[in-house]
Amino acid sequence: MSQRLAKEISINTRERWAELTQKSLSLVNSQKPAIENRLALSCVYSIAIQSTEQHQRSDLGRSALFQFAPPTISSFKVGVYRDIRETTDNHQNTTKPTKIQSSPPKYNQAHQNTIKPIIIPSLQESKIAFIGGGNMASAIIGGLVSKGVNKQNIYVSEPWDVNRDKLAAVGVRTTTANSEAGADADIVIIAVKPQVTKAVCEELGASWTQRQTLPVVVSIAAGITLNSLQEWSRTSDGRSAHVVRVMPNTPALVSEGASGAFASADVTPAEKDLVNSLLSSVSKATEWVDKEELLDVVTGLSGSGPAYFFALVEHMIASATSLGLSQEQATRLATQTCLGAGKMLVESSDEPGQLRKNVTSPNGTTYAALQTFEALGLKETVDKAVKAAASRAAELGNTLAK
């Protein structure tokens, strides 16, 4: 009985992932289909890996929704995820699917163009300063170190002793003074809370007055506009740095992130390459949008997206346990199904909708589940959720700019 039930849940779960992803993609295809598709597909695969790896360390049923215990920076150094990642990589390198790869992959080619974790020479030679050493900054630092960037070229300003000690243990340079970390940096990553970003930028701008060439500034502070960042970081003689806004997501903490980026008009192609190289250490997709307001859409899609899937997996696990599976069985089946569906979405030449159809037999079990989704308004619910997140991102940006 349990085996039949487990098999049915596993089959239905794959189809639910495909259905949910298809609904998410339909919301943004009219604006930037190539960009949004890659972000959505990367988001699905990334949170699948994040969920699977989280289950290796703790009870996903307790922490799947909205949060998980992030690895420390030292965990990146010793490779806390090595066994899981090696298993995944070995499977990808040795397995040759016949059906999925039967035609040139439409997604895969575009996706591969954005995910190569290449550290370019200019980044290797650059002094990189992080203002803030929290989870996201620590993830990027860990990615850079793992790719061979000189630790002594990485400077971090972090007020909390515990975070600073972890970073120092990796071998990067640490300080409590923002101006010290960013004084002569080539690239400065603003990784602080939005509420303190203005004060941080003003401090940095004052410290750059004597510099002939200003650094490239990369902000991952949510909601802070380019105009605000440039105005706040002006030097006393009126110069402003070249600024890039980035909207990452939490799967970056397991090197499976998806990021949206927008640059000020004065950012050069070489500087974009520098930022791409920086982000490639933790992101499998970095998409440059041509309008700043599209970062709000990115926020609704991939920025907040991991929580959507955590919520779905949480509810699927609860449903399966109510039908008789143990918490452990349901969690393993759901997280692995999530990972498998994500890989299919990234690697397949089929659209998400076609993948859904491929596993939906007329009047079968999957059909029954999808009909229930449709009757309860899944499309409308996802539409409202993504738009609500995008709208809230815009509201926060307007508030913080005042």
> What is the CATH C-level name of the domain at 128-295?
Alpha Beta
Proportion of beta-strand residues:
5-15%
Order of H and E elements: HHHHHHHEHEHEHEHEHEEHEHHHHHH
Show unreliable segments.
27-32, 56-115
What is the molecular shape? elongated
CATH homologous superfamily caption of the domain at 128-295: NAD(P)-binding Rossmann-like Domain
- Mean pLDDT over the full residue set: 80
Q: What class do helices, strands and sheet pairing give?
A: alpha/beta
CATH topology of the domain at 128-295: Rossmann fold
Biggest sheet: strand arrangement: 3-2-1-4-5-6-7-8
Biggest pleated sheet: 8 strands, mixed
Task: Count up the helices.
Answer: 19
Q: Calculate Rg over CA atoms.
A: 22 Å
* Straight-line N-to-C gap: 61 Å
EC number: 1.5.1.2
InterPro entries: 6-PGluconate_DH-like_C_sf (IPR008927), NAD(P)-bd_dom_sf (IPR036291), P5C_Rdtase_cat_N (IPR028939), P5CR-like_CS (IPR053790), P5CR_dimer (IPR029036), Pyrroline-COOH_reductase (IPR000304)
Biased composition (Polar residues): 90-108
Domain Pyrroline-5-carboxylate reductase catalytic N-terminal: 127-223
What does this structure look like?
- The termini are far apart.
- It is elongated, with a radius of gyration of 22 Å.
- The protein contains 19 helices and eight strands.
- β2 (154-157), α9 (161-170) and β3 form a beta-alpha-beta unit.
- Among the domains are: 128-295, 3-Layer(aba) Sandwich (Rossmann fold); 304-398, ProC C-terminal domain-like (ProC C-terminal domain-like fold, Orthogonal Bundle), CATH 1.10.3730.
- It is 59% helix and 9% strand.
- Strands 3-2-1-4-5-6-7-8 form an eight-stranded mixed beta sheet, sandwiched between helices.
- α1 (2-28) crosses α16, α1 packs across α18 and α2 packs across α15.
- The chain is an alpha/beta fold.
- Residues 27-32 and 56-115 have low confidence and may be disordered.
- Pfam families: F420_oxidored (PF03807), P5CR_dimer (PF14748).
- One of its GO terms (molecular function) is pyrroline-5-carboxylate reductase activity.
- Residues 127-223 form the Pyrroline-5-carboxylate reductase catalytic N-terminal domain.
- Keywords: Amino-acid biosynthesis, Cytoplasm, NADP, Oxidoreductase, Proline biosynthesis.
- One of its GO terms (biological process) is L-proline biosynthetic process.
